[in-house]
Design brief:
The protein is α+β, with helices and mostly antiparallel strands. The protein has helices spanning 4-15, 21-28, 32-40, 60-69, 75-82, 88-98, 107-111, 163-177, 204-213, 229-242, 251-265, 277-287, 364-378, 393-403; strands spanning 119-124, 130-133, 136-138, 141-147, 153-158, 183-186, 193-196, 199-202, 216-219, 300-305, 311-314, 317-320, 329-334, 338-343, 346-352, 360-361.
């Protein structure tokens, strides 16, 4: 089975770079049928196999040493210097991965973006307590995204930094863009991925997400803040212009106020581009990719058996489920706003997601069902009436005479 990483890259090359099946197969070293299968599949592979070590790993320190002195040294020259006797393709691929780490930064790339080229994303934590109810509150995170060319800002506060929440917020912002950027830039967030030895390791959730959309991804290191300076400046803009003097009743109220403020902010002339983001986004959008027929579903899903007390625990809270389904296996879906429970396609529970902890949430419908079940159990079982045949007493007299 194809790896999630390869599946996502195949779809990016086909959707964003407009490459054909033959070219993709040659570039990635895969069979053409494998490429065709990946393009036909709108959902990622079910598992991610751990790749074995590469023969280049042993000589990577030597490659890094040469690139640190001569960043533009050709792969063939490196092969000669280190005495490489194996195939040149695998060595050339590793050199291509490592070379950007040793090239001097290009200042113009940090301020100039082509339409549809990329969008930068980040997590911003406003310094305000968001009430949850039941006397609970906390500081939450906001997914912020900025399209590089138009500088259009999008944002959405999410319940947590877990993959299903962050990716749901990211999908909402991409929807605000109106099309899919060809590439996105992220920090090394736990739910997105990390850099190890100069190589990107994206999480399975993010691989599946970007694969469905067909977009590329770039992770930046902690010592390269300018690599996503556009979104960092947007965070500062939110901090100084949106947040001061505001109070929020809950997450919904925060997002409502943020959405209204962003509509006005995106209509102002941007200091760098000298354009209004709300107008420049049309050119930006025209160069982006269209949305696929089936959008990714980042919501958290799991299956479990409904216990006897007909409650399911999700993120430290107990949600009631129709008690008639006790003992059955049920499917749970957690979105940004709701917890939905189904059994074989039938909805048997739906609650507004509570963002605090240690609460029991009981739906009114489930109270009625529970009361009806108790009344059914209390009704005595009716005893069926039976007719007993009465024998004539003379029959017994005859039996006694015969016996004597």
């Amino acid at each position: 089975m194809i790896e999630v990483e390869d599946w996502a890259e195949i779809r990016r090359l086909h959707r964003a770079e407009k490459l054909g099946i033959k070219t993709i197969a040659k570039q990635l070293g895969l069979a053409r049928n494998t490429v065709r299968e990946a393009l036909r599949s709108d959902s990622p592979p079910r598992y991610e196999r751990v790749l074995p070590g590469s023969v280049v790993d042993v000589v990577e320190p030597e490659i890094r040493r040469l690139l640190s002195e001569f960043p533009e040294m050709a792969a063939t020259v490196i092969a000669e210097r280190i005495g490489w006797e194996r195939g040149i393709t695998v060595l050339r691929d590793r050199v291509a991965e490592l070379r950007p780490l040793y090239r001097p930064p290009d200042p113009s790339q940090r301020t100039t973006y082509q339409p549809g080229e990329l969008a930068q994303f980040d997590l911003w934590q406003p310094d305000v307590l968001i009430p949850f109810g039941f006397g609970q509150s906390a500081k939450l995170w906001t997914v912020v995204g900025v399209s590089g060319f138009s500088r259009l800002i999008g944002g959405l506060m999410v319940p947590s930094r877990r993959a299903h929440d962050v990716l749901s917020g990211m999908l909402a912002i991409i929807s605000q863009f109106g099309a899919v950027p060809r590439k996105v830039v992220w920090d090394q967030e736990g739910c997105i991925g990390r850099l190890r030895a100069g190589r990107q390791e994206l999480t399975a959730e993010f691989q599946a997400f970007r694969g469905v959309l067909g977009m590329g991804a770039v992770l930046v290191g902690p010592n390269d803040p300018e690599a996503k300076g556009v979104v960092e400046r947007a965070n500062g803009y939110l901090e100084t212009s949106f947040l001061p003097g505001r109070a929020f009743a809950d997450v919904t109220d925060f997002n409502r106020q943020l959405s209204g403020w962003l509509q006005r902010a995106n209509q102002r002339v941007h200091g760098t581009t000298r354009q209004r983001p709300s107008e420049a986004i049309f050119e930006d959008r025209g160069a982006m990719m269209t949305f696929p027929p089936v959008l990714p579903d980042p919501s958290w899903r799991f299956s479990t058996r409904l216990p006897r007390d007909h409650y399911l625990r999700v993120e430290g809270n107990d949600y009631s489920v129709n008690p008639r389904f006790v003992g059955r296996r049920v499917e749970v879906q957690v979105t940004l706003e709701e917890v939905i429970v189904t059994c074989q396609g039938t909805e048997i529970g739906r609650h507004r997601r509570f963002l605090g902890k240690h609460q029991t949430l009981l739906a009114v419908d489930h109270v009625r069902v529970l009361r009806a079940m108790r009344e059914e159990a209390a009704v005595p079982v009716p005893v069926a009436e039976t007719t007993v045949e009465e024998r004539d007493l003379s029959d017994y007299d005859r039996i006694i005479e015969v016996a004597s």
